[in-house]
Amino acid sequence: MYNYKFDIEKSKDNYNILKIYKNDKSIYMGSKYNMKNKIIDFINQFKECDDKSIFLIFGFGSGECIFELSQKFKNNKILIFEPNYNLIKYVQENISEFEFFNSSNNIELKYYNSSALEELKKSISVFDITKIKYGFLCNYEKVYMDRFTEFNNDVKNFLSDTVLYRNTSIVFARRWFDTLMGNLPEILTSSPIDILKGKYKDIPAVIVSAGPSLEKNIHELKNINDKMLVLSGGRTLKPLKDIDVSPDLLGIVDPGEIAYELVKEYIHSEESTLLFYEGTNEKVTKDYIGNKYIFTQSNFIREIFQMNISDMNLGGSVAHTLTGTAVLLGCNPIVFIGQDLAYLKEKRYGDIALTKFDKEKEITLGLVGGKALKVEGVNGELLDTNEELFNFKRGLENIIKNNSDVTFINATEGGALIKGTINMSLKEVISKYSLKDKGNYIKENNHSVDVNHMIDNTVVSLKNIIKSNKNIIAKSKEALKYIELIKSELRVYGKVKNNYYLNKMDEIDEDIKKSYKDLEVLSSLIYPVVYTILTGKKLSEYKDIIEKNEFLYKSVLAVSEYAMKKLECALEQINNMER
Question: What proportions of the chain, in percent to the nearest 5, are helix, strand and coil?
Answer without folding.
Answer: 50, 15, 35
